Amino acid sequence: MLLQELGYDEKTVGTALNQEFVRAKDRAETALREGDAVEIVTPRQGG
Amino acid sequence: MNDPVRLYDVALSSRLLLGTARYPSPVILAEAIRASGCEIVTVSLRREAGGARAGEAFWSLIRDIGVRVLPNTAGCRTAKEAIATAQMAREVFATDWIKLEVIGEEDTLQPDVFGLVEAARALADDGFKVFPYTTDDLVVAEKLLDAGCRVLMPWAAPIGSGRGVNDVFALRALRAHFPDTPLIVDAGIGAPSHAALVMEMGYDAVLLNTAVSRAGDPVLMARAFARAIEAGRAGFQAEPMTPRDMAEPSTPVIGRPFDRLA
Predict the structure, then answer these.
(1) B205 with B42: CB under 8 angstroms?
(2) Which residue of A has its CA nearest to B208?
């Protein structure tokens, strides 16, 4: 839901909640609470 | 395949692993990858504003080239951050290979070897094929192997410094101590001659980025590195002569004219 609202393509992002990985298939069931730290990352150049 | 290098049961003919960052343009990046002949490129994960789509465009470019990717955990400062990043990378890039970086110090970007070993163990237990970016410390190398790593990636010098091999004796000792472990020199390589040197020492491969991407002509430099690495590898296999302190004539001494006049 959050990913759609923010305009991400869900297939090419990785997600974490409070520094813990959240699998793509678990995103829909993962509830967010006040103060949670959400990470949404996409592929990028790297060394 | 002639003289392949085996990394986690994948046989590769190129001994160059190339980073994808800091190129003048995506077109030059793609040309440099092709010119290098490399079969593995490193990639990363970063935040991006929703709808920006730069990440998708980059990933599509890499997939079109058809090389294997080695995602990194660049910039992670703790084992926990690196583990979460690796897990996200496995899902996004659909590979269980991970270049594991846990950075301990900002000026030198030197690995936090304690966090590195901790993260390596957790990731190896979780089925990852870990490529740890480490120092040339022999004891740390032992611990990484014990943690489940089957490849080691010691630095030559700090990331992006281009200084070449800082401690040739430490790298030589590491090579001698782990004759059967694939060893890839990662970081600090600045010129093709640096890459040739470590290959002559018997290293299995070289991972570099800035030396190519920040060269005046990255495509030409990619080609130069490919040749230097091939030359260094051949030099190692050909078994170099033993150095001497004093001269030894290469031309036969017997039959030298004017000898009797001396």
Answers:
(1) no
(2) A47
A8: which chain B residues are within 8 Å (Cβ-Cβ)?
A: 50-51
The predicted structure's pLDDT at residue B38:
97
Determine which helix (DSSP H) or strand (DSSP E) holds B60, and give its type and residue range: helix B54-65
Q: Which of B85, B92, B98 is nearest to B127 (CA)?
A: B98
In whole angstroms, give the CA distance from residue B133 to residue B182.
13
Maximum distance among all alpha carbons in chain B? 89
Which tens digits make up the pLDDT trace of B75-86?
999 999 999 999
In this prediction the pTM is 0.93
Q: How confident is the model at residue B50 (pLDDT cuts 50, 70, 90)?
A: confident
Are the C-beta atoms of residues B99 and B153 closer than 8 Å to each other?
yes
Helix axes B113-125, B138-146, angle to 10 degrees: 20
Interatomic CA distance for residues B44 and B27, integer angstroms? 19
**Residue A4 — pLDDT band, cuts 50, 70, 90?**
confident
Q: In the A/B pair of chains, how many CB contacts fall below 8 A?
A: 104
Rounded CA-CA distance B234/A2 in Å is: 54
CB contact at 8 A, B52 and A8: no
Pairing of strands B205-208, B184-186: parallel
Question: 10 Å Cβ neighbour count for B66?
Answer: 9
Nearest to B68 by CA among B40, B91, B42: B40
Residue A40 with chain B: CB contacts under 8 Å? 47-48, 50
Residue numbers of B annotated as active site: 99
Query: Closest approach of chain B CAs to the CA of A5, in angstroms?
Result: 9
**H/E segment holding residue B35:** helix B26-36
Comparing alpha-carbon positions, the chain B residue that sits nearest to A17 is B84
